[in-house]
Each structure stands twice: as C-alpha cells, then as structure tokens.
User: Fold this.
Amino acid sequence: MKNIRNFCIIAHIDHGKSTLADRLLEETKTVSDREAQAQVLDDMDIERERGITIKSHAIQMDYLKDGEKYILNLIDTPGHVDFSYEVSRSIAACEGALLIVDATQGIQAQTISNLYLAIDNDLEIIPILNKMDMPNAMPEEVKDQIEDLLGCDRDDIIEASGKTGLGVNQILDTIVEKVEAPKGELNDNLQALIFDSTYNSFRGVITYVRMYNGKIKKGDTVKFVSTDSEYKVDEVGVLRLQPEERKEICAGDVGYLILGIKKSTEVKVGDTVTSVESPCEKAIEGFEEVKPMVYAGIYPIDSEDYEDLRASMEKLQLNDASLTFEPESSLALGFGFRCGFLGMLHMEIVQERLDREFNMNVITTVPNVMYMAYTRKGEVFEMHNPSDMPEPTVLDKIEEPYIKAQIISQADYIGQIMSLCLEKRGTLTNQEYISPTRVELSFEMPLGEIVFDFYDKLKSITKGYASFDYYQIGFRPSKLVKLDILLNGESVDALSTLIHNDNAVYWGRRMCEKLKDLIPRQQFDIAIQGAIGAKIISRETVKAVRKDVTAKCYGGDITRKRKLLEKQKKGKKRMKQVGNVEVPQKAFLAVLKLD
Amino acid sequence: MSSIYIHIPFCHSKCYYCGFHSVASCKDQSKMVDAICKELILRSDFLNGKTIETIYFGGGTPSILKIEEIEKILNQIKSIHTIVDNPEISLEANPEDLNKDFLIGIKNIGINRLSIGIQSLNDDILKFINRRHTAKEAIEAVCLAKEIGFDNISIDLIYGIPNQDNSIWEENLRKIESLPISHLSSYCLSIDDNTVFSKKEERGEFSQMPEDESEMQYRMLVEWTKKNGFEHYEISNFCRDGLISRHNTAYWQDKPYLGIGPAAHSYNIETRQWNCSNNPKYIKAIEGGHIANEIEERDLDVQFNEYLMTSLRTKWGINLKEMEERFPKAWLEHLSKKIIKFKLHLNTSDNKVSIKEESLFISDEIIAEFFI
Assistant:
C-alpha cells in the first residue's frame, strides 16, 4: 500500500486537463504509441468532439522512481458544473490532486470551487501551470494568483505543457514524493467508495471503486449500504487502459467490480460497498441521491416511435444513471417522457446521444427547474412541469430553487456582470478582489434564471473572460406565473414556461417574435400568441408560404431536382405536427435563447 | 416514341444566372461536333430502335454552330434512327446570332422550332444579367424569324430578378404582346450553384427578390397569358394553338430520351445517365470509343417520386389508375392521405390529380410531401 498514489486532476474547463493526462499515460507507457490518440480517457465520441469529459474515468499507471515501483491511480473527472457531484466523489477517492491552471488564462471559478472541494477532503494539492508553450502565457502573473490562493511556495508550482511534454516527469516525481500513500487497514471490514460506473452489454454494470479498508475477491458477497442490496462478486480487477482482472483488490487500491448488475440505476455514485458477513461500522460520508436540476419532456417526432423511444431511453440510462424519466403525455405532442437532467449540457448530450446512437428523432420541450407548490389546504408537492401548476384558486404559493453563484472576471466587466445578474433577479452578496485586476463576485439567484443561456451571455459580455460556478442553497417563495403559447388558437403545453410576474409581458413578446423566426411559412397563416391565463399578451403571425417552386425543370436533369425535393421532405420529417402547424425540433429549445 | 437532346457547351459569354454546363471559348468546336456525331453511333442502341419524335439542340448556345455543323449532326441522327413524319426539331438561339442567312440556313436543313433567349426587354436588366443583346435586337430577331417562315417560335423571359420591379415586368409583358410567338417559357429567377449570381450572393453583393414580390410577378404573368390566349400547361411554360414544347413535355411525361454531348442527361425508364461535364474529358473519352458518364439505376421508390415530381408540374397531372398498376398499395394509400391534406390546392377528377394553377407557385411544398 505504501507504493500506491491515488490522485485526481482539477481544472477549469479547457485548461488542458485531458491533454496533460494523455502525456502522463504516455510517459508511464500505460498506452502504447499504437493506442495513442487525443483524449485517451474520453472514450465517447461526444467527449472527443466537444473536447469535454462527461464520465469519470480511472486509469492505473506504473512509475519507477529511485529503483522502486509505484502504482499511480489517476481519476479523471468531468469538467462541467452539471457533473459537480461526480467530481466531488472522485475527489473523495483520492489523497492528492493536480491543480491545473492555464498559464494564458489564470485562475477561474471552477478552479476555485473544485480546489475548495479538494482542500475539504484534505488532499495534497500539486499546483501546475499548464500551456507554458503558448506565446501568450503569463507565468509570473498566474503564479502570483496561485500563490495567493494556495499560500504555497512559488517554487512548488510546476511549469508544464501538455503539448510539448514539459514538466511531465517532474509532475510524476512530485506525485510520488508529496501525495500520501493511502491509509486503510487490510484486515478491517470491507469499506469501498463507488465513484462511477459504466455499462458493458456483455458484462452488465461495471462499478468503479476506491478501496478504503479490507479486501475483496471473486466469490465474495457484498452489499451497497444505501440500497441494502446484496451481490455476489463475479470479477474484480484494476483499471488499466482496458480493465484487467486480478485475484483481489485491497485497501488503498482503485479498481472495478462486476456484480452481475443489469440496471445501472442500482449503482449510486458515492455509495459504500461493504461485506455482508462483516459489514463496516459506518458508510463513507458524503453520499447523496443525485437529484435532477432541470426537467424537460422528450417526445418522438413520429408518435409511432414511442415504444422505440422508451427502449432507447432505457438503454441510454444503462450508462447514464443520472438520467431519470417517467412517461407523461402532452396535449400537443402526444406520448413521451418527463426527463430529469443534471443541467443543460447533460440535456443536450442526452438528446444528441438519442439521435446518434439510437437514431431517434425527438423533440425536447422547454426545460424548467423543479418548483415546490403549496396549496391552500396545506399540501406540498414537487412540480416538474409547468402544466402541474395548480389552479390559482387552489394555489397558496410557489417556491423556486436558489443558487449561490460565483463569478470571477476582469474588474473591467463588473458593471456589465452586475446588470446581467440583476436582470436575472440576482442579489449581490459579496465582492472580493483576488488581484488588483480580478474580482470575485457572489450572487444569490434563482436557478431557473441561469440554467438556460446565462453562461453564454456572461461569456459574451465579458469577451469570454468571466468564469462561473454555482451551488444550490434551497427554495424561496417567488411570484411566478405560467406563460402559455398558442398556435392558431390552440395552447401548446410543450411551450409553456413559468416565469416571474415582472418579466411576463416582455418574455411573452420575445417568445412570439422568436417563434415567428423559427416556424417556417406553411400553407396558411399561423397566429402565434402568448397568454397568461385567459389574457393574450402578445401576438405574431407567420404568413402563408407564397413561393416554393422549382421554376426550371428541363434539360433532362431530373435526378438533381428529385434529390432537392427529397431533402426538403427530410427536413419536414424533423418537424413535429402540433395541431395543424409543423414546428421544427429546434424551436422548442431556441425560444429560451432570448436576447 | 422518344427524343434526342444535343448539348452544345459553348457560349460567347456566361450569363450570370445560368447554371448549365458551357464554356465561353469555342476553340474545340469542330472537334466537339465530331465527338457528338461519334457518340450518336456509340449509343445508337440506347433507345432500342424507338422512333424519334423530337430533336432538341440546347446549351450553352447552339446558335454558335455553323449551319453545316448542325446539318452534320442532324444527318447523323437520320442515318441511325427512324424519325416520325412530323418531328419537332428545336434549336435554342440567342438573338444576336439570328441573322437572315443563319435563319434561312437552319430552316432549310429542317429546324422547325426556335427557342429564343430574350430573358428581358429592359436594357438595364439585360446588362445586369450579362446578356449580349439589347431589347431592340431581341424583338427584331423574333420578327425576322417569323418573316423567314418560322411558325413555331418560343421565347424565354425571366421574372423575379432583383431590380426588375413590377412596373418593368409589366412593361416586358406588354412589349411581347405583339410578337409573333406561339410559346413562352417564363421562369422565376433561381440561384443555381456555380453561377455568378450564387457567388455574388455568397459575398453578400446580391440578394434575391422577396418571395411575395416574385409571387406577384408570377400572378401578373398568369393573368397576362390568359388574356393573350396562352394555355398554361407546365409551371413555367405557356403555349398558343396547342403548340406545346413536345420535347420538354416528354421529360415531364416519363418518355425516354437520349442526351448527347457533355453534361447531357439520358433516360430509358430503367436508368438515368449523365455525361461528364468537362469538354476535353468528354471528347477524349469519345475519341477513345467510350462514354464518360454516370449511371443511376432507378429503384421503384425513385420511379414513384420522379413520376410525381415531373407529372405534377403539368396541367395533365398524375394518373392514379396507372400508378396502381406500377406501385405498391401502401404507397398509394400514403398518396391518398396527402391528396386529402392538400385538397384545396388540387384538381381531382377521374383518377387524375393535378395542382391548381393558383397553387403551382408552391408546388414543391406539395410534391415533397407526396414523396415516399
């Protein structure tokens, strides 16, 4: 155990985490040249294309130092605020963390929030200044920031570059020297932390664990503390580039378990694995049921595909346990599912994976956060859908979730950030200069205001400089009304939203304008109306199509013209028939991106 | 019955709207004529010995050719194929080429229909689209052709050109009122790929006329043709005295045709084929005794869609009875549903379905939904 080092990497998105991880794997010969490709650990196509990590990954490396062999377990964590709970569990599985800061950008909001998580878990922090090869690197300035933040010695900051390989050996040496070997008792009762799971169509769910105490081998019977379910161990092993079976894994190790589990929802990240015969006294702290932050309906474009959609969602859930769904029906869209997501990125990813991996054409309805509704009779219930909103005569009050937002930016942009946050119903709670030119602002704001396009806007008003992170701080009463959208007089429930009373008229107007741009001209005029209760607050009209004709069709080239019309027909297939109006897929989401 | 199309891929200059294959240099002209004659031999079996009803010289600018060259090609066709007693033999011509000698010459060798590219009768617009003639020359060419004895003259006019507002368009229509024409092809300007206009559009130097305005010009056109005794038999084609373009109508009525020359398209029910659109490559292949072309086999769904697409362009429309014999029942059921959906835009009687004249301007919208 004394030669094991478990560490993770914390970084703001795009600070070069995955690329630097690639270099560590190459240097330790964990991947051969043949296997090397960019972002080795990110094995989903979407991860590589978007350059982000969605799932946690773990990989074991061997490293020789001073004649002694060390086992280094790297746990790569998702780099997006949607997945912050998974990040926190991965951090809990380690004794050390590489804090990667982009030398061209300096410290950002996520760097700080993840750093605090690591410090809370008593991790040894190894500061690394990445992207030193870039001409616009500002090493001295960023080192000042890191010194201020960590109170570390300036000389301890390692200069590195994922691109050129600078500093890679120094990083590996420092991990061995500074990160503590795991503590834990081989002879104690089994106690292991689940930090992720994946699904394999042959083996079922593969559970990733960090062993705290005891050991585990094939044939043992184990149980999960939170669910109290028992399983027989089919296989244990360690995570090399591919999983490698071992006789047993012991306290201090990072490895995997195959327990014959078919449904990924049974495996909860953060849960404790222990032995049935001699269970550990208490579970590892920090476990939480992951609750969705954003809800939206997913409907098949062609109603006949409903059962196919269900099958696809079930398969998707196998390796995305944080996706929740239950059947619902909409007057406008027919049968579909109400789904819970960790955030907007998660939602986009689910929609994209349904399209790519299952070839499902779906409509995602306007997303919303979860609200608490209180009736006059004193009942309380969760509202996942604006259409659940009780009648005004029954409703006592609605509460909406609030968050604490931390924004770090160049001081020049304070004014713009303040007005954006105030517009989003935020209140400033703190303002702190982390350097003469950089400021950290804290706001309390409704979650519903930031889930949609807040981050995009923040980025654009600060020319990309601001970074942002947040956590939930509970529910607060709010004056919300339901804004309905009518197409040719019929209310389209999938476009309903709950918004603050003060913004209702403005939003109603903007949504109608936006829909006017998004709904193509059709055979007849289409009236788009915004309504609150029975009161119409805005209206736009999409005029009937006047011209859609292939004027020239001679010279015998029929093929090309046919293909153009086939393409046009295909485009229509991506639209949902709502009443007699065809609404494009993108209209349901794009209405949120109002300026 | 079948047709032959000859593509002459040369022009004096490129018109900004034109997406057809042609080059603005005539240096290989005589070689090209030889290659065309040779391709006629190489593909003599393509039409399976069917009688030829129409021959069409298109382009490019066929009126660039010398009379002897046109004659050589015609003689070649006659030596290989049987031709009906009253064939339609058309030639596309630009006004500036139509002098007296040329007109007499082509008449003598058997050309009996002229399609004259007038496009506009406004000199500013003609410049804007890069034509080489004036309005006056265009009118004179038509009158001269009539004088020399052409009784089947068609002209082309384009509407929906930005800058050519309703008043200019109206003036165009008024100016052709007295012309001795039996046929009018009038197209709404479309921006095809690889045209000067499409490049200008990409650079933001050109923008299309708003659809409400071009639709207005279409309505003006339809009204004018009615008043002047024209029959609207295809989206963009009008004729008097029953003088439809028999050649183009063959395309819309699923008849086989052989297309000769670079970029020319051929059709024999089972396949569609198109020659390579590069003059030197075309000539080289033919000289080596083979055809540089692409062939598309037509699956039944393609046949279904193309039948709909071509037939619904015309006033004759589709024949459901004929379709029942050719296509699966499920497809016809799909079609019946769509026919109900679009009934306001359709004429239906005796198993025939066609698009109403007032709805032809949105025909793509309808046809695309009819597709399987």
Chain B is about 40% helix and 20% strand. Chain B touches chain A through 45 residues (CB under 8 Å). The mean pLDDT of chain B is 96.
